[in-house]
Amino acid sequence: MDTHTVIEHFVLGYVRALIERKDPFSAHMMHHPSMSLPALKTVKHAKRHAWVWRAVAWIYKLLCTRRQATKRDLYYADPPLFGTQKNSDEVIELLSTKLLCQPRSALRVTCASRGKIWGALQYRENGASVDCMSLQANGSSISGWPNEWSNLHGKARLILVVEKDCAFQRVLKDQLLSEKLKTPLLLLSGCGYPDLPTRFALRRIAAELQVVCIC
Questions:
Q1: Looking at residue 117, what DSSP letter applies?
Q2: Which of 79, 87, 109, 116 could bond 139 through an S-S bridge, CB–CB 3.0 to 4.6 Å?
Q3: How far is CA 185 from the centre of its chain?
Q4: What separation in angstroms does the CA of 33 have from each of 2, 94, 190?
């Protein structure tokens, strides 16, 4: 069952429960480590349900438009409603783990990627061509959705992975990856501990282009 259908069934089930004067959620869905979703009995309870419905509508729009966004984008979609980003973040986790039971990637909600890449690599994303060598002198930011890259190709045969952004910038500044090298290289950094998009990008590049990783 795709995520569109899961959300539609969720909405129909909620409305049906209200019509029948039942709790919209079963007991096993009403517990979350940091947030509960109680029955509709008070204004405070109703506000928590409003958070869920605002998030569901936002996620459904992302699915329909094939866009992606971060958890922070949800908070800024309606700051007066959520009050703090902590509330909107908890709603996303509640939907993912308890209510919709879909991974955040299926909901098109991702973290803001910190990773960077530079070198002889090209791909298409959201209909636009991306050249990791010509885009920026300090490297191209890795998208939060490397699984949606298409037409991935490049001449690189090695990927040099560095941990810190300062090391990444130093290598570029000193032109250590100049055209004088006999083997074209890619330079990749997680800018600290690598997040999931950066790790996924590295895995996909290594697998599809058959390049060797040097960490």
A1: E
A2: 116
A3: 27
A4: 27, 9, 29
The domains of the chain, with CATH numbers, are: 3-110 (1.10.10.10), 116-214 (3.40.1360.10)
The tokens 């029955």 sit on which residue?
39
Residue 21 sits at φ, ψ, to 5 deg, of 60, 40
Does the reported pTM lie above 0.85? no
* Predicted confidence band of residue 30 (pLDDT cuts 50, 70, 90): very low
Residues 47-59: tens digit of each pLDDT:
888 999 999 999 9
Question: How many Å apart are CA 69 and CA 64, to the nearest integer?
Answer: 13
Classify burial at 185, counting beta carbons within 10 Å of its beta carbon; exposed 0-12, middle 13-18, buried 19 or more: buried
CA distance 11 to 145: 27
* Tens-place pLDDT, residues 97-108: 888 888 887 888
Q: 109-119: buried (b, 16+ CB within 10 Å) or exposed (e) per residue? A: bbeebbbbbbb
- Report CA 50 to chain centroid distance, whole Å: 23
